[in-house]
Amino acid sequence: MIRHLLKISDFTKEECEKIIEKSIEIKANPEKYSESLKNKTLLMIFEKPSLRTRVSFETGMTQLGGHAIFYSIKDSPLGKKENIHDTAKCASRYVDLISARLFKRKDLWDLAKYSDVPVINMLDDFAHPCQILGDLQTIKEKKGTLNGLKISYFGDSHNNVTYDLMRAAAMFGLKMDVACPEGEAYEPEKEVLDEVEEISKQTGAEVRVVHDAKEAANNSDVVYTDSWMSYGIPAEQEEARKKVFMPFQVNSELMKSAKPDAVFMNCLPAKRGYEQTAEVIDGPQSIVFDQAENRLHIQKAIMLFLMNKF
């Protein structure tokens, strides 16, 4: 059966753990996997720009002995000149894996629906599973476990990273506070809240949306934030959004409310003086570049898993 990764909850907790362990192994022994995907080809479809996503996938595929093709659809949108069904069917005849970074979840879902090879979501408006799997690996490396932790997220929560981080927290039975301004434009979608609630019933997770940053930071093991100006948000909204989100900025004072050994994470890109201060992201509790590096290793593990290579 063909498996796709469209959101982190497409995998079970046990599968996520297996992928994380494989990623840690690959990180320690990269040469062992240098021919694991020999003569295999990955098609990378990009509607949104990326640094870490493109470089980690392309480098990862090369280091596994395969080949990656970068295909930009910025000037030729998916489903316009040719319907998504035909794109998926044709591409499946050429390549062994398809990854896509798109604006709309429906386009990603349709690509997977009609593809005859595994499809990996490199980001859409509903999920960012590769990022969160890499984040979980980083947390495990730094904390030694993924059990019994509290994660706090601050800022824009109407956001793909937030959604999959919430799903992951629910799957792993963790505590998580999502701190954001009130309002539909800033809070998680109901569909995500409902999914997280259902998963939490099975795992005992406690995932909350709160509107007080200090309350959310209290007793946290992991402090996480993301950009206030995600791709697609008009530049003219920047000043207004900055004013709305500033009470949720991660600064040294907020970090004092977390545990003394709390780590700081940002999936990048980061703007100092916005979602976090320079003293936090460049400080001793920051693990953002370890987090960024692990994107390379986790992409490899994800591709090997979907290709039934472990």
Brief characterization of the structure:
This protein has 310 residues and is of the alpha/beta class. The protein is built from twelve helices and nine strands.
Structural summary, described in words:
Helix 4 links the parallel strand 3 and strand 4. The protein has a 5-stranded parallel β-sheet with strand order 7-6-5-8-9. It has a 4-stranded parallel β-sheet with strand order 2-1-3-4, with helices on both faces. The model has no long low-confidence stretch (mean pLDDT 96). Helix content is 42%, strand content 15%. The chain is an alpha/beta fold and 310 residues long.
Distance between the termini: 15 Å
In total, the number of strands is 9
CATH topology of the largest domain: Rossmann fold
Unreliable residue stretches = none
- Summarize the main sheet: 5 strands, parallel
What structural category characterises the helix and strand content? alpha/beta
Element-by-element helix/strand order: HEHEHEHEHEHEHEHEHHEHH
Percent strand equals 5-15%
> What's the helix count?
12
Overall outline: globular
Overall residue-averaged pLDDT value: 96
Task: Indicate the CATH class of the largest domain.
Answer: Alpha Beta
Radius of gyration: 19 Å
| Proportion of helical residues | 40-55%
CATH-wise, what's the superfamily of the largest domain? Aspartate/ornithine carbamoyltransferase
Strand order across the largest sheet: 7-6-5-8-9
